[in-house]
Amino acid sequence: KQKTAYEIPKRDWSSDVCSSDLTPSLIPHEMGHSLLGFIDLYDFSSPARDFTKGWDIMGTGSTGEQSDSFFAWHKWISGWFDDNQVDCITAKGTTVHYLDDLDTVNSLNKMVVVRKDTATAIVAEVRTERVVVYRVLMNAWGGSGPIITNDATTFKVNPKVGDTVTESGVTFKVLDCRGGGCTVEVTNPAT
Description:
The protein has helices at 26-36, 72-77; strands at 86-89, 93-99, 111-117, 120-127, 130-137, 147-148, 164-167, 170-178, 181-188. It is mainly beta. The strands form two sheets. The protein has a five-stranded mixed sheet with strand order 1-3-4-5-6. A four-stranded antiparallel sheet has the order 2-9-8-7, with no helix packed on it. The chain starts with 25 loop residues before the first helix and ends with a strand.
């Protein structure tokens, strides 16, 4: 019979159990695997590269900061907010969207999703008046970049009106940020 952690005397604890690698972010990361079925969002090669740039618990936090939240994409597919809090774009054109802070509990829009094809989506969300843009590859495995946020696709500090970023041909322009959320213009050249 294998002993539980409560049954193991202190002198028998392995270095794995008491490792200095056991950080506060590791527990929700592992719970993301076991309870929600989320995959790793970092490169399995050495040295590992965090595809999320520290914006999601399932990344490694290579930016020096580990997120204390999941991406809006993860929260949406887990049912943590309703479909009516997601603006989905499938057509060509320019649209304007207000996105409220992801971690504020309310019924406002939390993300805009631009569907590029059956396996690719471009997503924008807001964290503390910072717009985060990333690409979701639904046919990629953990360790191979299923969700990728590039440095250039994140307005991390004081986004200014007129700031733009293009990801996979989709352009996001910050029109305004205040009161915890941001208004973003999205231009989708084609699907």
